[in-house]
Amino acid sequence: MTTVLISGASVAGPALALNLCGRGFDVTVVERAPALRPGGHAVDVRGVALDVADRMGILAELQAMRTRMRGMSMLDADGNELFRSEEYAASSGRLDSPDLEVLREDLTGLLHARTVAAGVEYVFDDTVTALTETAGGVRVEFQHGAPRDFDLVVGADGLHSTTRRLAFGPEEDFVHHLGVYVAVYTMENILDLDEWQVWVQAPGAGGGIYPARGNTELRVNLGFESAPIEGFHRDRDAQRKELARRYEGLGWEFPRLIEGALAAPDFYCDAMAQVKMDTWTRGRTTLLGDAGYCPSPLSGQGTSLALVGAWVLAEELGRASVPEALTAYETRMRPFAEINQALVANQPGSPEADAAITHAKFAITL
Ligand SMILES: Cc1cc2nc3c(=O)[nH]c(=O)nc-3n(C[C@H](O)[C@H](O)[C@H](O)COP(=O)(O)OP(=O)(O)OC[C@H]3O[C@@H](n4cnc5c(N)ncnc54)[C@H](O)[C@@H]3O)c2cc1C
Fold first, then answer.
1. Is residue 107 located within the same domain as residue 142?
2. Domain boundary at 238, 257, 273, which?
3. Which of 155, 190, 261, 355 is the most exposed place for a label (fewest CB within 10 A)?
4. pTM more than 0.85
């Protein structure tokens, strides 16, 4: 049986694991965090990713867990409403669209539960530290576990992928910063929002806030403009401090929202960035999802790309040898990844973005 190691248990990794175990592969997933990482903004499953979700057998569950916003308000930095819409929400686009918006942690929880039930092995609290090509496989060393041999290694370990660094070189060669950081976290519904989003624009900062879990909590998503900050993505204290500094002196409800950021256990902050590479494969190691072709949350397509990539890679592995499958995966996925990366030029949910997503559908065949 072909053995596969997947690094990263968020969206791309477990989606690939689910698709592979249905095709008779022996799959292990290693995740650096001690458990599935909670939190995150609502993420979108759109266009061709809906067809993939259907083929994966998770579409009905995604439909049941979708967010149900009634609309949104856009405020200025003093809390004055600039406009409101009952047809559109900035995070997900048109409310009558067939696209699905789900909380990231609900999607990862679903994929994890399905793969555990299918026999996928998960190793938490560990990370790959070295990859050595052998005849027909890869010898993998781990920070904690004993070395193991696999027929294929897939890096699904996100924007700051360790697999990419080990197989291809330093992050700076591939990650393109887009000039903005975004913090995402959960707190009490202090604004009493009822299935309603609020977006706020302030000079150099701003974000969106909406309720989740039956209006019992708020998901807060605050951004600030900044050049890349060295060593920032692993330093949660530095992220919280920087966010508080950037919002200091701003009015409206920002002070209470920043208090929430300081207390939130699921606080997450990262750069809006894209990953661009000439190839995603080196020997028997390949990259999937954000690790290989992150389009950035500004595109609204990161999760859809991860799901489609996981489907295409599994399908190709199911019908050819590992080297042939990796070539076919890249040939099919690259135009679709590139067209989605180009979406950052459009406001998510705008007619231009909707048209581009429809166009993107034809950049891949399932
Ligand atoms: C906690 C969290 C919150 C997020 N919030 C948002 C959000 O609000 N909005 C948005 O658009 N996108 C968000 N994302 C990113 C979004 O999930 C991805 O853009 C998209 O779904 C593609 O997923 P991915 O699986 O390729 O990468 P990611 O979702 O980034 O997952 C990568 C996974 O790999 C793990 N990992 C990293 N390094 C290693 C290592 N060395 N060894 C093993 N495992 C490793 C990470 O812990 C993570 O579980 C978030 C990601 C995370 C992890």
1. yes
2. 273
3. 355
4. yes
| % of the chain exceeding 70 in pLDDT | 95
Closest ligand 1 atom, residue 38 Cα: 1
Reduced to 3 states (helix: H, G, I; strand: E, B; else coil), residue 30 is strand
Q: Is the CB of 105 under 6 A from ligand 1?
A: no
CATH number of the domain where residue 211 is located:
3.30.9.30
Is residue 352 in some structural domain? yes
pLDDT at 356 over 70: no
Kindly state whether residue 74 falls inside one of the protein's structural domains.
Answer: no
For 100, 229, 243, the CA distances from 221, given in Å and listed in that order, are 19, 19, 11
In terms of Cα–Cα distance, which of 278, 276, 279 is closest to 290?
Answer: 276
Q: Dump strand ranges (E) for the chain.
A: 3-7, 26-31, 42-45, 71-76, 81-85, 88-89, 93-94, 100-103, 121-124, 128-134, 137-142, 148-150, 152-155, 175-188, 196-202, 205-212, 217-225, 268-275, 281-282, 285-287
Give CA 148 to chain center in angstroms: 28
Would the pLDDT of 352 be above 70?
A: no
Supply the range of the domain harboring residue 209. 178-273
Q: Does residue 6 register a pLDDT over 70?
A: yes
- How many angstroms is it from 26 CA to the middle of ligand 1? 23
Picking from 37-46, 71-80, 188-197, 310-319, which range would have the lowest pLDDT averaged per residue?
Answer: 37-46
191 shares its domain with 149:
no
Residue reference for tokens 């890869």: 138
Q: For residue 136, report the distance from its CA to the centre of ligand 1, in Å.
A: 30
**133 and 13 both lie in a single domain:** yes
Q: How many structural domains does the chain have?
A: 2
Look-up of token digits 């083929």: 55
144 and 203, same structural domain? no
Residue among 104, 184, 280, 312 to mutate when testing ligand 1 (max atoms within 8 A of CB): 104
What does the pLDDT average to over 263-273? 93
Is 340's C-beta closer than 6 angstroms to any atom of ligand 1? Answer: no
